[in-house]
Amino acid sequence: MAGDSSNLQGVLDSLRNNPGFRENVVYWQSIPPKKPITAQFPTNIHPDLIQRLNDLGISSLYSHQEKSISLLKLGRNIVLSTGTASGKSLCYQIPLIDAMMANHETTALLLFPTKALTNDQLVNINQIIPESAKTWIKPAVYDGDTSQKDRRMIREFSKVILTNPDMLNVGILPNHTLWDKFFKNLKFVVIDEIHTYRGVFGSHVANVIRRLQRVSHFYGVHPQFIMTSATIQNPKELGENLTGLPVEIINQDGSPKGQSNFLIYNPPLTNAELGVREGLLMTSEKIMTLLLFKRVQTLVFCRTRRFVEILLREIRSLVNVPANIVRGYRSGYLKAERREIEQGLKSGEVLAAVATNALELGVDIGGVDAVLLPGYPGTISSLIQRAGRAGRKINPSLAVFIASMNPLDQYLAMNPEYLLSRNPEKALINPDNPLILLEHLQCAAAELPITKNERFGNLDPHLLNEYLEYLAEAGILHKKMDRFYWVSDDYPSQHVSLRSTASESILLQSDLEGQPQVIGEVDYNSGLWMVHPGAIYIHSGETYRVETLDLRNNIAKLVPSNDDYITEPVSSVDIEILNETQTSDFKYYELKQGEIYVRSTVKGYKRIKWQTREVMDYSDLQLPETTLRSVGYWIVLKDECVQRMRESGFWLSDKNDYGADWPKIRKIVRQRDGYCCQVCGVKEGLVEHHVHHKVPFKQFESTEKANALGNLVTLCQNCHRIVESQIRVRSAIAGLKYILENLSPLLVMCDINDLGGIVDPAAKFAENQPVILFYDAVPAGIGLSEELFKQFNPLLNKARDLVINCSCHDGCPSCVGPTLENAVGGKQETAFLIDILLNG
Amino acid sequence: MESLSDRLKSLGFKTASTVQPPQKSGLKSLEEIISADVVTNSLGSFLVRNELFPYGYQHGNVVFSDSFLSEKIHQAAKLQRSGVPLNSLLFLDTETSGLSGGSGSFAFLIGIGSFSDHGFNLQQLVIRDPAEEGSMLLHFINTVLSDSVFVTFNGKSFDIPLLQNRLVVNRLPGNVRNNSHIDVLHLSRKLWRGHLPSCSLKELEVEILRTERSEEEVPGWMIPEIYFDYLRTGDTEKLSNVVYHNAQDVVSLAALFIHISNLLEKNSDLDEFKVNDLLSVGKIFLDLKSVDIAEKVFLKCLEHSLSDEEKITANNQLARIFKNNHEPQHAVQYLIDAANAGSYEACIELAMYYEHQLKDIFSAISWTEKARSIIENITPGYRMQKVCAELEKRRNRLKRKESEKNV
User: Are residues B46 and B62 in the same domain?
Assistant: First the structure.
């Protein structure tokens, strides 16, 4: 059995007093225990249900549960955003079952993002159904795994259907006539974990909900929506965007909490110059060993499956415990094994689990004593959710976030109050994205003919009519009077992939036990830069190398790889501004937003050492051009800004040691160039001309290579200053782009690949001014650029904090990015530029 | 201002057909081309085309009459009711906008055939536009009475669910799934699976009814596109071929129904039957638990000169009848004939019979080995592997018994 709470208390005390540990803890938040805020059951709940809850040991409600039930009784739609394990399920289970006790025909639809969750919830909801109601409520899972034989019975008899958005899209809505009885009595729609419905996926799901509403209205019902969300900045807004309806937020958590400790641990620097820190693996091992030694039940959330396996192996060899009490948990493990581990965690028989996010979403394991988070999981929301796994009932708990060298991790390590402010990312969707909308309008028309000016969620009716006319003109719909009919021998929802916008995709194939298997797919447009030949591609935490990319059949062949490098595509990108929708004018820059057209060609790729981010080599590629029309925002630096950077001579103090031979070499080069400036041609006068390193001196491992004659050129003082300053401007904007790109996920929930970005020291579309531009990497965009445009100032502030507080000498992967080719480190330049932009 | 179409195009949206063929002008209307009448009801109007096939009309080798008996076919189709009068039958076939399923596919043509005083009456309901669907369906549900019995070809899984979907979509009352229903495809499969390469209506027309379609015929898979084409261009020519196709489907359906009824009813006249039909009818009678008739039918089979395959079927069926009737001694001769024609199943039956009933281990072993030698000549498959393994077990057991006996 795992230890009781006093073990953790002991560990906490010893950690507090351990200077070696404490010096790396950049943040220790200790929240005192919280008493529950309880409320009585509302009076009008069916007595059988109350009895059943009493039997289960539930004699009163937490305040947020009571509030949910009351608001639902008033007919409102709600979104619940309370902590992990705060009893969110009861908030919808009670009103659902209660309504069904009052009216035996009432039905409810429950949507979960994953199948595993659906099955868990089925067990869960069955538990609270009173014996007397078991004969008619009959909850059932209806998804791709449900047999044809069972489907008819479920449609006919089940009052509670548990499913997922994909099944609703492709199975239920297109066959709504088979569900007429179910729809006629539909009172509640539950959408669990709505924070997972963001970006492209969320925009699709919002349209599936629009279709659901449309079909419901046809059967004469307007179901209420009950949603749950992890901690995000805008649960209410997301709920309203998903349903197109006004939604009440419930975020006052009435459940009790034990004393919780949240720590941010920044591993010590091993190379301050390069910003290299002790690795995640070693740090995790150290802390985990300490916890297991004291028999503290621990859960580790890893970012990759491979990390799970390595850490597991190391821990088992370090700590002398039976293998069956320290377990791995990730996708790929058999269902039965996973259930066994979940049970073991609940009962305490499993002392530690090393897991991927497979354990994150709602899987019912109760709480553990300690949670380790090696590396930022990508969103604050997910960090909070995972950390929330720590805490069994009202026992004290510990969660440790271990920062990696990534800029986001380092930003959070340096600005822990950002996590404290409880102001995490916004989840954005764009249900009106034209491509997504167009697909769902076809599905909707196949479900029921569409009438002009009809309501489709909150879509502007004029826009709807425009789309309908377009589809009619294209021969996809048939228009008669004011109605649009589906006239095609096709089942349109079958072609809608809720997770992408492009109809064309590249299949990823890898040999598994000698058989080629499709392990995934990527959109064609991202395909070229993600899975070009030679690319290192990470899929489900496993690393692959792309052997071939067959664009005739759209298949990328992948082989598992153990290489210690990553690849970075080098593209030529051509931007055309289609229209500027917004401009903000500042003294030193303009901030713009609008529709853009991106033409890009992947020209080649660099191989970069994983640990040090050092560029190993570059290879050419021959790939076709891809185009993308999307929404972007960009910063145009004004002349005044460039001027200020030029005028500022602060960097000239930073002299390099060019070696003992330097005077001799200088002479040779000047002599070779005829003592003339190679830019303006002026001859050397009284003052000797300068000798300039074309590729900056700092880029070279040795003085000899840097001082090779081919890298040197004679310049007059004036021209040298200009050339140097251009390099420095270039470094500054490249550095700023790198930081903005990496910090954007702090404000909007997105993956770094969801945003494209370019820097151009002389952008043609901006009258040759220096520009940094970002765009949504999805046709027509999903709202990221618009939001980042709005939040540019906060973003810039975060960028400054990161650069100023980074302990590296002149730029590192944790701040302004790896040392740039043909440029200087860029840290000071970037900081200077940010300062100009912020303070003028 | 950029048009939506240009905007979508530059976003990368690809449409299937962006070029609209022009609406043809000066064309004859559909009602003229197919000589139909416009019918109007409270929900709008649509077309009705009537055609009478008087009694005596010959479709292939089937003569339409109202004097055939259909009680047996009703039993074979497991109708809950008996004594259904001929004029309660509705022979139904639809032409639809698609086969992809879902609530989005609709019927634009419903062909309904029924026996009346004057002959077989075909009524085809056609809509000139999807907007006319409601009015056509209203007419349709008024045609269907609560005691109407549908006769269709694959209608149980296709036409009736589709029509029911569309009733719901058009908010019309009624549930056509509740009507009794004879699906002739299912009966045809019982009768001819194994004898014919497929039981498609086309195959049955050629092989059973011996009738051919004219050059007006269009293949079924083209029909949705023809209708969409008509909607876009108003071109009625191809659509009239669809009307022909549907009429043929309904008439062939009725002819098949008459043919099968005759097969089942005229068992006293077994001399008229071909071998194939005898075998099929025999099986149906077994299904209907009319064992005596089945026995008569299979015995009749044996009077013909049969292929090995036919011998196997007839003899095994007879053996089964006797076995179920607890007369294994009578089954033996038929099993031996089947075994000699190459039935390993018969060999196994014999091996069991000799082992357990007669305790004749030696004969049991020899039948087991014969079964093995037959199987060795059959293309191996998973099932065969299983049978082989079982035979191996049986042989070992028998050998052991034999040696025990010898000790």
Answer: yes
